[in-house]
UniProtKB/TrEMBL annotation:
<dbReference type="Pfam" id="PF01035">
    <property type="entry name" value="DNA_binding_1"/>
</dbReference>
<feature type="domain" description="Methylated-DNA-[protein]-cysteine S-methyltransferase DNA binding">
    <location>
        <begin position="5"/>
        <end position="86"/>
    </location>
</feature>
<keyword id="KW-0808">Transferase</keyword>
<dbReference type="GO" id="GO:0003908">
    <property type="term" value="F:methylated-DNA-[protein]-cysteine S-methyltransferase activity"/>
</dbReference>
<keyword id="KW-0227">DNA damage</keyword>
<keyword id="KW-0489">Methyltransferase</keyword>
<keyword id="KW-0234">DNA repair</keyword>
<protein>
    <submittedName>
        <fullName>Methylated-DNA--protein-cysteine methyltransferase</fullName>
    </submittedName>
</protein>
<dbReference type="GO" id="GO:0006281">
    <property type="term" value="P:DNA repair"/>
</dbReference>
<dbReference type="InterPro" id="IPR036388">
    <property type="entry name" value="WH-like_DNA-bd_sf"/>
</dbReference>
<dbReference type="InterPro" id="IPR036217">
    <property type="entry name" value="MethylDNA_cys_MeTrfase_DNAb"/>
</dbReference>
<dbReference type="InterPro" id="IPR001497">
    <property type="entry name" value="MethylDNA_cys_MeTrfase_AS"/>
</dbReference>
<dbReference type="InterPro" id="IPR014048">
    <property type="entry name" value="MethylDNA_cys_MeTrfase_DNA-bd"/>
</dbReference>
<dbReference type="InterPro" id="IPR052520">
    <property type="entry name" value="ATL_DNA_repair"/>
</dbReference>
<dbReference type="GO" id="GO:0032259">
    <property type="term" value="P:methylation"/>
</dbReference>
Length: 117
DNA sequence: TTTGTGACTTTTT
DNA sequence: TAAAAAGCCACAA
């Protein structure tokens, strides 16, 4: 690709199946830079094409999103993911202390299957 | 061309 | 167990 990494990131994020989510590190790895998780965020931050790039499917390693920096708000993103079929963890397996809405990575974490360049 | 920063992740204190 | 710091790579100014 002309740009290389950035293009790869966009391609990977676009390849995320509906109802699934991926972490920055995973996208970075598929893009060719397993340690460039931050760059993935930076690239998505600019989001040159939010229409084709479902950045809301990309979450932290913890399953949470970027508060305040999402396309329109973490709350909106949660609703959007639910629309796609992504399950959320209300409380937490930790001790019932609800910290914040997290995606159920154990169920909706994308394996990278179906990604073709 | 060089410096600084960032939607992250992992390890150590 | 929790919190803090460093490391990492690419893009923008």
């Amino acid at each position: 690709m002309t740009n290389g990494f950035a293009q790869e990131v966009y391609a990977v994020v676009r390849a995320i199946p509906r109802g699934y989510v991926a972490t920055y590190g995973m996208v970075a790895e598929l893009a060719g830079r397993p340690r460039a998780s931050r760059i993935v965020g930076g690239v998505l931050h600019r989001n040159p094409d939010p229409s084709t790039i479902p950045c809301h499917r990309v979450v932290f390693r913890d399953g949470s999103l970027a508060p305040g920096f999402a396309f329109g708000g973490a709350a909106v993103q949660r609703r959007r993911l639910e629309e796609e079929g992504v399950q959320f963890v209300a409380g937490t397996a930790k001790n019932g202390g609800a910290e914040g809405p997290r995606v159920d990575l154990q169920q909706c974490l994308w394996d990278g299957t179906g990604y073709a360049e």
